[in-house]
Design goal:
By secondary structure, this protein is an alpha/beta fold. 44% of the residues lie in helices and 13% in strands. It is built from eleven helices and seven strands. The longest helix is centred in the middle third of the chain and has 20 residues. It is globular and about 70 Å long.
Length: 273
């Protein structure tokens, strides 16, 4: 049991895309506070033993690793029915999966591509929530959706993902209203680019190196920082915050712009003068 004052012992957390990046760090953040984490994956190069060791290292219960395609309704149903055999509820659901489909030009737009993006980046939040209620007889108390600044800020080739995240964020607001009578708390967290394998898969491996020329390391959000924000929102101390799109960015969205880069450059020149 972790010595944190936030105790999630006896709580079950289901995290889609939970075996790496933001999903894995979120699992570790809840796990070290006593939660039993179910981490789903579709494919990937994760190492089961390495993940178990990471959880053991922070004093967390051994997680359940479950292969399931979030866009496949049969997989979703089978997973939750299997979990029902070993637990009686899902307390927290983290919808974390996204589809990194890169767009190079307007001619790349297709309805099929958009639907595929939505099937991974948007709909699992809805489908899992509905299926959890069907199987367990109750909705999760807390639902968290992992979004990005894509809906409001331009990113290279991010068209489909940004559109899908926009739809997801709208659903967060409406689901907050629809499930209000069940006392469900649902929010989405946005962050700036986080250095994960998904960042490299979407934008290429050179982006981070290029960004370092203009963006200090302290401006970047780490996966564990976003994870800790979600822990706080699911702690019971923030239940009046629901139906919200919360930006986790250290305040940089306001000041990290051309003017601020110019100011830093001028200060650096003054020091070397």
């Amino acid at each position: 049991m972790n010595n944190s004052f936030l105790d999630f012992t006896a709580k079950t957390v289901l995290i889609t895309g939970g075996t790496r990046g933001i999903g894995l760090e979120t699992g570790l953040s809840f796990g070290k506070r006593g939660a039993l984490c179910v981490l789903t994956y579709r494919w990937g190069d994760h190492d089961d033993v390495a993940i178990y060791e990471q959880f053991e290292k922070v004093g967390a219960p051994k997680p359940i690793l479950a292969q399931a395609d979030v866009a496949n309704a049969a997989d979703t149903k089978a997973l939750l029915e299997e979990l029902k055999n070993s637990m009686d509820k899902i307390d927290i659901f983290i919808s974390n999966v996204s589809s990194a489909m890169v767009i190079n030009c307007f001619e790349d737009y297709t309805l099929k591509g958009l639907k595929q993006s939505i099937s991974y980046s948007t709909w699992p939040m809805v489908a899992y929530t509905q299926e959890i209620e069907r199987v367990f007889g109750a909705y999760p108390k807390y639902i968290m959706a992992v979004s990005s600044t894509g809906p409001t800020d331009y990113s290279i080739g991010y068209d489909y993902v940004a559109a899908s995240k926009t739809v997801m964020e709208v659903f967060v607001k409406y689901i907050s209203y629809r499930l209000r009578k069940y006392d469900v708390v649902i929010n989405a967290v946005r962050s700036r680019a986080i250095k994960t394998k998904s960042l490299e898969a979407t934008f290429g491996k050179d982006l981070y190196e290029f960004a370092q020329k203009f963006v200090p390391d302290s401006y970047w959000i780490q996966p564990e920082e976003l994870a800790e924000a979600m822990v706080g929102l699911c702690s019971g101390y923030c239940d009046t915050i629901t139906g919200q799109i919360i930006t986790v960015d250290k305040g940089t969205n306001f000041f990290d712009n051309l003017m601020e880069i110019y100011t830093r450059t001028q200060k650096a020149k003054a020091k070397t003068a």
